[in-house]
Each structure stands twice: as C-alpha cells, then as structure tokens.
Amino acid sequence: MAADPRSSSKTKRPAGAAQETAPRSQGVVRLLLEVLAIWIVVHTLFIAGYRIPSGSMEPTLQVGDFLFVTPLPYGPHIPFTNWNLPGFTDPKRGSVNVYESPVQHFLPDDSTPTVVKRIVAVPGDTIFMRKGVFFVNGIEQRIPVVPPPGPSSPDETSPVFDWQHKFELHGSRFGEPPMPIRHDDWGPMVVPAGHYFSLGDNRYNSIDARYYGFIPRHNFRGRPLIIYFSFDTLDLRVRWERLLKILWHA
Hints:
Blueprint: H1 5-11, H2 17-45, E1 48-51, E2 65-70, E3 96-100, E4 114-121, E5 126-130, E6 133-136, E7 139-140, E8 186-190, E9 195-199, H3 209-212, E10 215-216, E11 220-232, E12 237-238, E13 245-246
Antiparallel strand pairs: 1-2, 2-11, 3-4, 3-11, 4-9, 5-6, 5-8, 6-7, 9-10, 11-12, 11-13
C-alpha cells in the first residue's frame, strides 16, 4: 500500500529551518559575549562593588555596607595580571581606600584579601605610635577610634609585628623604638618610596598595616564612592539612613 503523501509532508522539516536556527543561535551567543565584554570593561575601568565583611572600619563603615568603588583614580587593575592602567593621582593621607593586602602569612585561607582601610601615611612619612596615639612626622593624628575592649589589647605583642624591625629608625628626635613592639607602642619607621601605611578606624578590631606591612602602590584597587545598600545582619533590617551616603571624602 502506498504511503499517503500528505502524512509524510507533515513530518518533513522546512528546507531553510536548519539554516535559520544556526544564525539565530550564533546571534544569541554573540549578544551574550558582548554583554560580558561590556560588564568586564565597566567593572574594570569605571565602577565595582565591595561588601564590608568586618567591623574594622567602624564607625565610618559598618558590617553589611555595600559600596560602589571606582578604580579610575589609581589606574584600573587588569584582571588575572599584575598590570595596572595609568591613573591620575595617588592615595592621599587620611583617605579610605580599597587595596589588595600584602601577604598575611597568619591567614589559613586567603592570604592576600582585598580590604578597605584608611591610609594614614604616604611615602617618606615618619610614623610611630605611643600609648595608642598615632603620629606622622611628629604630629599627632586625629583619626576616628573605637576604644577597647578588643579583641586586640593596647599591650598586645605578637611575632607578626616583627617585620617592623627592618624599618625601625634609631637615633632620631622621635626616640628609640620600644622593645618589645606592642599594639599601641611601635616605631618610629619611615614609609618607603612607592608604599603606604594603613590603619582601621576601629584600631582594636582591625588587621591592618601594623600586622602585614607597607602597601605597595600597585596594590591599590580604588576609592569608595557611595554606600548603595546597607543591611544590619544582627537586627535583620535595612539601614535606610545609610543608603546613598557619599564616601569620596571619607
């Protein structure tokens, strides 16, 4: 019995269908690649997000703050490389910055985390701390401080401070470095060329340059612009009062 030509025609695929599907799939892939490329360019050159994970910068920045950060001032960092594009300025003393930490040998997992701290000294500055008071070139610096308790204590001593011995200044008008080095008593030291020194505003709950040393200029990743969202993880509420808070001058 001969097959019904009408039934077979229903199962036949139109001749141009395969040719139409291929360009459509290629178009979707091309669109996704273009969107990805735009996202990488924007994220690398103009603006990136950062979440505050700890209380080291309280009260300026709080746990659960979400920041927009711009890499433009210091030169955008090219992902997966050690290269930075040219910037138009350098980190300023007193400014809050995002940077890749020098190696923290005491961390078990990520030894070079990206952190946000206040830059308190620039190349050539002589720095020291006496009884918790921080000095730059012999001048007392007024920086927001959350007083102890800790977890750190003013008299804390630790082998992680020993890196400072290499940079200590002896025989200067600022006095001799204390022995042993303590959390609140150290220096004087001179910040090397091309490097910077940081402190967390909450100095007794901050792992900063006192622990891991001077920050190379090429480690900087940007300046915070604004808090675009803030969530209190303890009270489980949105901190509406912190939304859109400008940080450029922090």
